[in-house]
Structures are given as structure tokens and as C-alpha cells.
Design brief:
The protein is of the alpha/beta class and 338 residues long. It has a single domain (41-337), classed as Aldolase class I (TIM Barrel, Alpha-Beta Barrel). Helices cover 39% and strands 17% of the residues. The chain has helices at residues 3-11, 16-31, 71-77, 120-127, 151-162, 187-203, 221-234, 253-261, 273-287, 302-311, 320-325, 328-337; strands spanning 47-49, 52-54, 58-60, 81-87, 100-103, 108-111, 135-140, 168-172, 211-215, 238-241, 266-269, 293-296, 315-318. It has an 8-stranded parallel β-barrel, surrounded by 4 helices. It has a 3-stranded antiparallel β-sheet with strand order 5-6-11, with no helix packed on it. Helix 4 packs parallel to helix 5 (151-162), helix 5 (151-162) runs parallel beside helix 6 and helix 10 (302-311) packs across helix 12 (328-337). The structure holds flavin mononucleotide. Residues 61-63, 66, 85-86, 100, 109, 111, 113, 139, 172, 175, 214, 243-244, 268-269, 272, 296-299, 318-321 line the site of flavin mononucleotide. Flavin mononucleotide binds next to strand 4, strand 6, strand 11 and helix 11.
Length: 338
Amino acid sequence: MDLYGALRPLIFRLDPETAHNLAFLLGEGACLLPLLPQAQPPASLRCQALGLDFPTPLGLAAGLDKGATLLPLWQSLGFGHVEIGTVTPRPQPGNPKPRLFRFPEAGLILNRMGFNSEGAEVVAARLKRRPAGLVVGGNLGKNKETPEAQALDDYRAAYRLIAPEVDYIALNVSSPNTPGLRNLQAPEALKPLLTGMLALRQELGLERQPLLLKLAPDLAPEDLDAIVEVAVASGISGLIATNTTLDRGVVPEPLRARVEARGAGGLSGVPLKKKAREVRLRILQALDGRLPLVACGGLGSPEDVLTALADGAALTQIYSALIFEGPGLVDRIHQGLA
Ligand SMILES: Cc1cc2nc3c(=O)[nH]c(=O)nc-3n(C[C@H](O)[C@H](O)[C@H](O)COP(=O)(O)O)c2cc1C
């Protein structure tokens, strides 16, 4: 058993957010070590996507390292890219605690963090010291109190600060924990958002930096088709699918009442796998190769990642499986893929 396996029972007895904060504290200590052991993904996994070079198609999904505090650690585990954020333009505390719940027996996480963020200025300053050789994406969102009609101003404010420090940007319009955010996925709201962001990208001379859109798994197939057409027509660089789901139907029946009792939030991990793949397959069909897709949602094994790549995804991301399996998962997936 590895160290994480040995500590797991202890870690999982702690309140999830306390465990998260403790792990980050230890991680920050590890990042100060002069020589953090470096896992090297097998050379055969090198790939190109979005005009960027990746040592592996496996990356860390947004939401774990919201403030870009542990980049050297993710790199040492062998991740090819890390999506930091979601970062909001101004600092905000997120939702009241408790807001994070684990169900290890089902590999399921429920969260309603609600974009707890130090704000774009602080995160941008930290990114100036980011390690070389790791692809970093910046995932952006809007502040809770910003009215939907002014969302574009928030994304633009965060973009101005974060974009110059990262390799790609992901617009998060799919978190279920900021009221109204998902309405931005509607084509009539999406068009001005994407146009406004692409105009800013040009104004800042960042035309060559990929701009991606992260989507929810709770969209009807026809809505996905319409969103794909808006995305392609706008000229953005790619899509990420998916974020967490609001659909309680994915939860195994014996667990449903317990999950329900924890209240609102998005679900991720194993129970999301099937739904996220269905959504991705629909998007890939609609895209017909016109834009690259980053696969996310319920991936947790070499087979899962391989399936996503064989389906046509250019890159993959994980979050929940890393919490349940521990840091050794990255290398296990790499060995399996190789
Ligand atoms: C606790 C938690 C916080 C998250 N925060 C964010 C976030 O801030 N922004 C975002 O785009 N996605 C966020 N996500 C969603 C993940 O990036 C990912 O899309 C989702 O968890 C599905 O992948 P998984 O099944 O591998 O976890 C969060 C997920 C979890 C579990």
C-alpha cells in the first residue's frame, strides 16, 4: 500500500474541507523543497493540442487549485497541465460551510463551494512565479453579486489580469453553484460573451492564446448542438466537457437519500462518468472535428482516459478520482496509457 493508501482512513475521517486545507498546507511545504521528486510521463504520451505541447494528455481539472498555490506539486506528480481557478475578478468567500461532501463508497463528491476565490489580482501575482515546463490554464468566473447582465464585465476584468500569466483561458459558464451562471450557456447570452472575450483577447495582443468554454453535463442534446454552432462560429479555440451535474438520478439508489440530505450542489466522480461521456459524444458529433474537446467528468482509470481519447478528445482532466485514489493515480494512468 502506498502512503496515501495508508493515510486514507485517517484523511477520510476529517471534515472534507479541513482535509483539503491540511493537504494544501503540507503541499505548500513540499513545494518549498529544493528538489521535489519529478514523475516523468512516458515519452510516448507527448501530444499537441490547442497549438500547445503537452508531456501527457492528462491534466488536473479546475477547482482543486483555485489560487495556483501548488503548481510545482502538480508538476511533480506528472500532470501535463493544470487548470487553476475558478478565479473571480474580486475576492469572495464562496458559500457558507459545510459545502463539500465525499461519498467514498461511490467515488462521489458533492460540492457547493460557490467560487471561493482570492480574486484575480492575488492569483495573477502568484502566477508570475509559476514553474517552467507546465501548461497552466486559467479558469475564470464571475462574482456572485454581479448581475447576469454584467457578467461580461467580470470575465473581462479577470481576463485582463490572469490571461497574460497563463497558457490558455477557460470561461466557466457551467458551475451550478453561482445562481444564474449556467444561463450564460444559452446561445443568445453566449454569443455576446464569446465575442466580447475574443475582442479583448485581440486588444491585449493575445490572439494566439487558446480561449475555451467549459460546459455543464445537464444540457439537452439539441441545446448542445446549438452551443457547438455558436462556439464554432465565434472563433473560440475549444470546449471542455463537463463540469459537475445537478442530476441526482446519477447517484446509486442506496446512496440517494444520504446525498439528498446534504442539500444543493454539483456531483462529480464515478457516478458522473456515463452522463459526461454521453454529453461529450454528442458534442464531438456536432463538432465534427471543427474544434478540439477536453474531456472531463468521472475519469479515473487508464481505461477511462483511453476511452475519452479514442472517442476523439484532445486532452483529459481529472479531479474527484485524485481525491479518492491519491497522487499515485497520475502515474498509474500514465503507465496504463503507455
Ligand atoms: C470540490 C470541487 C470544486 C470544483 N470547483 C470548480 C471550479 O471552481 N471551476 C470549475 O470549472 N470546475 C470546478 N469543479 C469541477 C471539476 O473541474 C470537474 O469538471 C468535475 O469535478 C468533473 O470531473 P471529476 O468527475 O473528475 O471530478 C469542481 C469540482 C469539485 C469536486
